[in-house]
Amino acid sequence: MKILCIGEALIDMICTDKGKSLSAGNHFLKKPGGAPTNVAAAIAALGGKVELAAKVGNDPFGKQLIDVMQGFGVETRSMLTSNNHFTTFAFVSLMENGERDFVFNRGADGQLTKDEIDSIDLRDVTIIHFGSATAFLPGPLQEAYLHLLEKAIYHKIFISFDPNYRHLLFQNNSSTFIEQSWHFLKHCNFFKVSDEEAMLLTETDSLEKATAILLRKTKGVFAITLGKDGTLLGLNGEEHIIESIPISPIDTTGAGDAFVGAVLYQLSHRTKVQIDELNLGDWKRFMVNGNKAGARTCEYLGAMEAFLHLNNQIFN
After folding, report:
1. Contact 50, 67 (CB under 8 A)
2. In whole angstroms, what is the distance from residue 51 CA to residue 226 CA?
3. Mean pLDDT, residues 150-175 taken together
4. Could you read off the pLDDT of 172-211 as tens digits, one per residue?
5. What does the DSSP 8-state code read for residue 245?
6. Can you tell me the distance from the alpha carbon of 74 to that of 44, in angstroms, rounded to the nearest whole number?
7. Interatomic CA distance for residues 230 and 2, integer angstroms
8. What is the maximal distance between C-alpha atoms in the chain?
């Protein structure tokens, strides 16, 4: 059963001069990234069949992103290249006060169009994962993202959603992010949010209030990741806590994406009828295995490097 991920593929430029602002830093580490790109790589690393729909520039960095995905075994025929826009970059540095100095240089990722989405063959796709923070920014991707959701609903394809809120992208307009996210929350079959995202999207000040609203207003199964406190599973109007995997993390980058990838990988082994018949025990097992994938990812520096150490044997 094939999974289609849609959203941004980009290059993270991470300043390795600790405590320095971007203007003061001199050394940067280049890493392929983008949340849906990470999810696709994690699924492929686990042995799943996955395709990535994204747009990159016709430049060395776009080529790198395509090569990395192909190296993991991700289908890249829907990774399109733009001759008019450079590959998207995100520059980030952690300053001494703990704040992130962040510059987002948006390019090709936002140029994926509705017409290009229509060219994707959905006949063998059983799950579509929407996991792109940038898809809610103005641009062609915003329309393409919504269009694919409508196609997924029409074709009764299983819908997965991870809002991936980034404060530095929406700090002056979080209301549009919340509004657009709720359209997906109400239609998806599974979604994953962090505890902070749960409170943001429900506009509440506690996890308990946020969980109650999500249980009442959404129809899908959901997971709220709680870091060292585990994962909250929302299912059939009830909440359940799945314990975390004790580790000494080296880098948490991509852990949430690995979690989502692991859950979708497990779902991809079931037919739609079988997914509808999953019980509490099944979903708890999926969450435990998702936590294992997230924990394994935290043991390495950089998401893509960590995914090289992912395989389905970690579930045993």
Report:
1. no
2. 29
3. 93
4. 889 999 999 999 999 999 999 999 999 999 999 999 999 9
5. P
6. 6
7. 29
8. 56
